[in-house]
Write a structure and sequence with these properties.
Bound molecules: uridine-diphosphate-2(N-acetylglucosaminyl) butyric acid
Mean pLDDT: 96
Number of helices: 14
Number of strands: 25
Structural class: alpha/beta
Largest sheet: 5 strands, mixed
Oligomer: single chain
């Protein structure tokens, strides 16, 4: 298992390019199952979860090819036929987002067999609403031997109201509905930019979707979908993580190919915490992109954070924010409302000297505390990012274990950090 050895205490400086959004790329890849034509996706991040999803699609019978950075990180997926519409336990247990193949498979083939995801380090994370929604569209669902079996001759458009806002649930039903008979209306849908990006791809493929990015999405089913080309939006959580990295190390960074509109809540909170952030358009080749400049101007201020669905402060930035709050003057109250068990990083941060009290969904971080390098262990993707941030700010050496978690969603983060002046090294052990 790989580890990072990090020598803290150096301000990060320079330019870093933000990659494509993992959580937009995963549903886009699943959407390729909706057509027998080729779907080409650009700006695909080279992270472990994408490799896992590609493995799943290939195992089911799709052909895929991936080109490198020079060709725009381009992934072509061709799902001519899918002889075996099964997502096996071995893959789903590695990555819960595998469940995103459920909607497209039932929509196109009238049959899917997807392993139930089981427990997760950050909370229970059931998929009951994905299943209830598919049932509302006429699918018959049964659970057998740990697998969800979904069957339908052809899905029928209907009205479905989500009791809880769910990102992948909205994506799954939106994809299934594209090939249903008639109109589907999804109420209380998630508003995340990844939903809008998926709808944009599906519409390029010939779907008829309106309202993505609002609480009510309307999908008029079509007989078939075609191939399409699409460029994935920038990763807002990678962007937020680098904003926090600049702030916690007292650094100055320029983040290229970012999308500040997707980080309004994060940037507002960091500004409240005393971080200077500006954004401006820039050109990259023929494209107009956005650049975010972030500068730490002095000791940070405490600021309370409550995680919320988009456009609120994202749960996927909570752990990184907690690391930053350890360096702020005063007490920051963090309230996690999305996942019930997403504070495992707090105990590891405490091992580095942080003063954090967790009580249910609330955590109080008292700062500033001097962090000292220690051996710590990552428990999930964003928790591992928070430990890396803390280690960058800590005095002396830290070893962050189980960095396979960070590899799931950050593209060679140690290379990007090294180029910004961080002392970080990957230790590979068999
Ligand atoms: N929920 C239910 N029933 C369902 C589905 C969800 O009760 O059928 C609950 C969950 O237990 C949770 C809440 O609804 O309490 C929200 O979960 P959601 O379904 O929105 O999460 P997700 O779709 O499984 C995506 C991201 C996560 C991110 C969350 C919240 C992808 C592939 N994953 O998960 O990303 O934290 O939305 O924004 O898009 C990450 O990238 O590190 C990550 C965990």
């Amino acid at each position: 298992m790989d580890k990072f050895r990090i020598e803290g205490g150096r301000p990060l400086e320079g330019k870093v390019t933000i990659g494509g959004a993992k959580n937009a790329a995963l549903p886009a890849m699943a959407a390729a199952l909706l057509t027998s034509k080729r779907v080409v996706l650009r700006n695909i991040p080279r992270v472990r979860d994408i490799i896992t999803m590609r493995g799943l699609l290939d195992e089911m019978g799709a052909d895929s090819s991936l080109k490198g950075e020079r060709q725009g990180n381009r992934l072509a997926i061709h799902a001519r036929k899918i002889p075996d519409p099964t997502a096996p336990y071995e893959l789903v247990k590695q990555m819960r987002a595998s469940v995103l193949v459920l909607g497209p498979l039932v929509g196109r083939f009238g049959h899917a067999r997807v392993s139930l995801p089981g427990g997760c380090a950050i909370g229970a994370r059931p998929i009951n609403l994905h299943l209830k929604g598919l049932e509302k569209l006429g699918a018959t669902i049964s659970i057998e031997h740990g697998y969800v079996e979904a069957r339908a001759d052809r899905l029928q458009g209907d009205l479905f109201h989500f009791d809880t806002i769910t990102v992948t649930g909205t994506e799954n039903l939106m994809m299934a509905a594209t090939l249903a008979d008639g109109v589907t209306v999804l109420e209380n849908a998630a508003l995340e930019p990844e939903i809008e990006d998926l709808a944009a791809l599906l519409n390029k493929m010939g779907a008829d979707i309106t309202g993505a990015g609002t609480p009510t999405i309307r999908v008029r089913g079509v007989a078939r979908l075609e191939g399409a080309e699409h460029s994935i939006i920038p990763d807002r959580i990678e962007t937020g993580t680098f904003l926090a990295a600049a702030a916690i190390t007292g650094g100055h960074l320029i983040l290229e190919c970012a999308e500040p509109r997707h980080l309004t809540a994060v940037m507002a909170k960091l500004r409240e915490a005393g971080v200077e952030i500006e954004s401006r358009p820039a050109t990259r080749g023929k494209d107009v992109t956005q650049v975010i400049e972030v500068k730490a101007t002095g000791p940070g201020r405490a600021a309370d954070v409550t995680t919320q669905e988009y456009p609120g402060f994202p749960t996927d930035m909570q752990a990184q924010y907690m690391a930053l709050a350890t360096q702020a003057q005063g007490s920051s109250v963090i309230t996690e409302t999305i996942f019930e068990n997403r504070y495992l990083h707090a105990l590891e941060l405490a091992r580095m000297g942080a003063d954090i009290t967790v009580d249910g969904r609330r955590a109080v971080v008292r700062g500033p505390t001097r962090l000292s390098g220690a051996n710590v262990q990552a428990s999930d993707l964003r928790a591992s990012a928070s430990l890396v941030l803390a280690a960058l700010a800590a005095e002396g050496e830290s070893v962050v274990d189980r960095v396979y978690h960070i590899d799931r969603g950050y593209e060679r983060i140690e290379d990007k950090l090294k180029r910004l002046g961080a002392q970080i090294q990957r230790i590979t052990e068999d």
